[in-house]
Amino acid sequence: MEEGKLNWNLKVSDLHELSELYIREKRLVFDKIASLKDPNFNNTLGALERFDRDWTCLVNTLTLYQHVASSPELRTASSEADKNISNFDIQMSMRFDVFKVVNSLVAQSGTLVAEEKRCLEKFLLKGRKNGLEMEEVKRNAIEKLKQELSDLCIEFQKNLNEENTKLFFNPDQLNGTSQSFQDSLKKSEDGLLELTLSYPHFFPTMESCCVPETRMKLQKSFNSRCKDTNSLILLKVLKLRHELAGILGYKTFSDFTLDGVTMAATSQRVKEFLENLKLRLKSLGEQDLNALLELKLTETDDNSPITMYDYRYYMKRRQKLHCGIDHEAYRSYFPVTKVTDAVCDIYQELLGLKFTPDTSAKLWHEEVRCHVVHDASCGELLGHFFLDLFPREGKYGHACCIGIQPSCHSDTFSQPAVAVMLANFTRGQGDKPGLLTHDEVETYFHEFGHVMHQLCTRTQLSCFSGTRVERDFVETPSQMLENWCWSREGLKRLSCHFDTNEPLSDLMIDNLVKSRFLNHPLKTLRQVALSTLDFVLHTDSNVDLSVYDQIMTDILGIPPLLGTCMPATFVHLTGGYDSKYYGYLWSQVFAADMFVTRFEKEGIFSQRVGMDYRRFILEPGGTLDADVMLRNFLGREPNSDAFFRALTPRV
């Protein structure tokens, strides 16, 4: 690993200076291309490819600081560097002179290899979607809009990262939560327990606390994060996106953003997909909701409708009563260190890899761990991954994988990948290790699947490396891998009681597997509702954020709490999933097909199927269309049969 590119000891001034250096060097490359008299692939797109290959690691390091640095000054400087770099990259993407030179390569496309030809097609598509075939006045307006949008999206996410609301409760107000959870909380001077809005505090409380007033207060605070600032930012973002789409000649922003970069391709197809899901699941979701209401009435004599702060609590209660699921008992079988070891072992076996701890790697925090990855059969270096698993103030609040250095391999050059996984799991206290819920184990397995996608690609050009696939396919590989967390063989390997070292018993596994599809229609309808919100906001320029209330009430049957503004906390809207949040559901269709067709039939630990998955799904990166990769792996056209069978097990 080149420490010069991957530097975790940078100062505030370094972030500014290095971002300016990147800008100067990249401008020189663009200027040189614009002046070419005899352009070819090597001195145009090849030159851009080599620059991005060599500089992406440094740029991603600079911008990662805003998500992981302990120093607020470093986080702010990283955010500013991100804005400067993003605005500059927008400027370069609007270079008409460069677009004109590259466009001349179309006449040479017959001489290009497949990956080069695809690179040319993608570059020209992006140029057309940037308006580079339009007159200068419109191009200037587009550039200004894109820069303003970039700044606003970075600010939206920065506000959520920096959010640090604290709520205080006495132990009785947290009745129902485990003693170990309460022991892990900080205490105020007057003995009250401190709750933040981070995942390790929010979810256990919402799922276990039997005091509705506490759940209501926490839910209201959670869905009011950055309400005043981010709601204004989001409204402005939506206005500018609609304006941008209009200038470019698209009917809606959804039509613009889906065109040429997704499997769905059109807003009409997304609309039909979501409406079909709603139609097929609505009655089943209502059955789930009625079951929760009956449970609430039985336990409280309260016949008022299920609320947002009841939703998670009664779903967990239903799992416990119907399937014997005591989530606190299950947590004891998932200590984070043991789960980490098991996840690594499973992926190594499945994909033919070898992980080795890299104790010499420089780290940005003492809790971070680094591993080096080699191909198990030939010993080739594939890359490094970093695990940053626990919450800190100012750190990114969700779980994700961030590609730092893209891999690319040719006859004359090979660059290994670097990826970072961020999570916010509960850390250990004293002699007791950090324990994961089964949901968190599933999240771990999912995000680590993205890490493997980054490290296993075998592309010649870095622009197709890793998860640079269609946006509504990017979740498919990881969603397919979640099935290991629901199989007997997988759970035996993933579980290890922190005290006895015993795996989950057969009965506990049977109960857990039985619980998988309990509440499933209702949970899926929530995703349909969020996808619909994202879609409506980007197709109807006349709606405001209150449309969220209507959508949740209509689709999920649960109105939001008064005074909240969940869209102001919906980080996906400004994080690359604009009008593409449906992709989580779309991806599940193909994830189910892959798992049932190959792994379920031939064995989830079949190395032959695992290597086929690595070869046909992970290694191509973005060099092939998703439907081609699926056909290669499945041996036929993909279909939605397995997906709908799983969604509607009672039909």
Automatic annotation (TrEMBL):
Residues 206-647 form the Peptidase M3A/M3B catalytic domain. It comes from Oopsacas minuta. InterPro entries: MetalloPept_cat_dom_sf (IPR024079), Neurolysin/TOP_dom2 (IPR024077), Neurolysin/TOP_N (IPR024080), Pept_M3A_M3B (IPR045090), Pept_M3A_M3B_dom (IPR001567). Its cofactor is Zn(2+). GO terms for molecular function: metal ion binding; metalloendopeptidase activity. It comes from the Eukaryota. Binds 1 zinc ion. Gene3D superfamilies: Collagenase (Catalytic Domain), Endopeptidase. Chain P, domain 1, Neurolysin, domain 3. Belongs to the peptidase M3 family. One of its GO terms (biological process) is peptide metabolic process. It holds the Pfam family Peptidase_M3. This is Thimet oligopeptidase. Keywords: Hydrolase, Metal-binding, Metalloprotease, Protease, Zinc. GO terms for cellular component: mitochondrial intermembrane space.
